[in-house]
Amino acid sequence: MSNFENQKMVGVWLENRRLSVREDLPIPQPAPGEALIKVRLAGICATDLELMRGYYPYTGIMGHEFVGEVVQSNGDQDWIGKRVVGEINITCGECAACRAGRSNHCEQRSVLGIVNAHGSFAEYTKLPLRNLHQVPENVPDEMAVFTEPLAAALRIQEQAHIGPSQRVLVIGAGRLGQLIAQSLALSGCRLSVVVRHAKQQQLLAMCGVSCLMEEETGSQSWDIVVEATGSPDGFNLALLTVRPGGMLVLKSTFAGHTTANLSAVVVDEITLLGSRCGPFAPALRLMEKNLVRPQLLIEKRYPLNQAAQSIEYAAQAGVLKVLIEPGN
């Protein structure tokens, strides 16, 4: 019997789009090949906020951005005591997508804190050992907690070639948009970001990224446009700004439906590219080498028992990263 069997923990529970902090949740028991992880820090993401608005009918512990410490391993014991982050897609390894090397699109996948898998807004969470990545010693928790969204930002450059000669516009300078901008800036492309708040502009300026107001973007003048607002207005602006023959990258998930005149996509031969989860190892390397500064986005930290207040604060317009500290 493990030291954690039949013990309870505190976690943030979502059910019928209602949030509660529960103290009666069982500590997860790792199955063969899984690890139990004590969560050190967790980050609130736009997807968490959209789950509360009905993006996906999820019931369970919320959260998928985290850094933690392995306290139990039902497999390789060398993981115990290691500081880790974890890929959020829990895959079968056997379906056609997995066999084809597209495990992020596993036909049987569950997703940490989003689809059929309890998440990281809790004292403990669990994941398969194959999902774990050890955090380099010189990467503090306040950086490591950004691994998942930074990896999602890097996914764009896995999918599309972006070089120094290309003009790239990011629409949206929120949590994810800031990380997209920091990572794209490393490519040397001619990058600008549409901003709405002075704080967003200040952070981008600290990273050497130029900013534009919406009315300054110009019509059909950008080779690649990344939509990172999660709003119909952002999508429509992206359609207006991408050049004929250019690419529009859709990076946001949001509840509900949007309507748009897609005739321009056909007439102007626009490439639409959906982009979701990305590579953890390169994200950790960028942070290890201090080539990105995600910790600049941190605005506030809350203990786990104040999770409701933390999510309410994170939902305010213009707020960047809010962290939850399960240990406090």
Description:
- This protein has 328 residues and is an alpha/beta fold.
- The chain has two domains: 8-134 and 293-325, Quinone Oxidoreductase, Chain A, domain 1; 151-274, Rossmann fold, CATH 3.40.50.
- 24% of the residues lie in helices and 30% in strands.
- It is built from ten helices and 18 strands.
- The strands form four sheets. Strands 3, 5, 6, 9, 10, 17 and 18 form a seven-stranded mixed β-sheet that branches. Strands 13-12-11-14-15-16 form a six-stranded parallel β-sheet, sandwiched between helices. Strands 2-1-4 form a three-stranded antiparallel β-sheet, with no helix packed on it.
- Helix 4 (147-159) crosses helix 5 (175-185).
- The mean pLDDT is 93.
Low-confidence stretches: none
CATH class of the largest domain: Alpha Beta
Average pLDDT for all residues: 93
What is the beta-strand fraction?
Answer: 25-35%
Number of domains: 2
As for the CATH topology of the largest domain, it is Quinone Oxidoreductase, Chain A, domain 1
Q: What is the string of SSEs from the N terminus onward?
A: EEEHEEEEHEEEHHEHEHEEHEHEHEHE
**Computed CA radius of gyration, to the nearest angstrom:** 20 Å
Q: What is the CATH-assigned architecture of the largest domain?
A: Alpha-Beta Complex
Beginning-to-end CA distance, first to last residue: 28 Å
Query: So how many helices?
Result: 10
CATH fourth-tier homologous superfamily of the largest domain:
Medium-chain alcohol dehydrogenases, catalytic domain
Main sheet attributes: strand count, strand direction, barrel closure: 7 strands, mixed
* Total beta strand runs: 18
Which term fits the overall shape? Answer: globular
Estimated helix fraction: 10-25%
Category from helices, strands and their pairing: alpha/beta
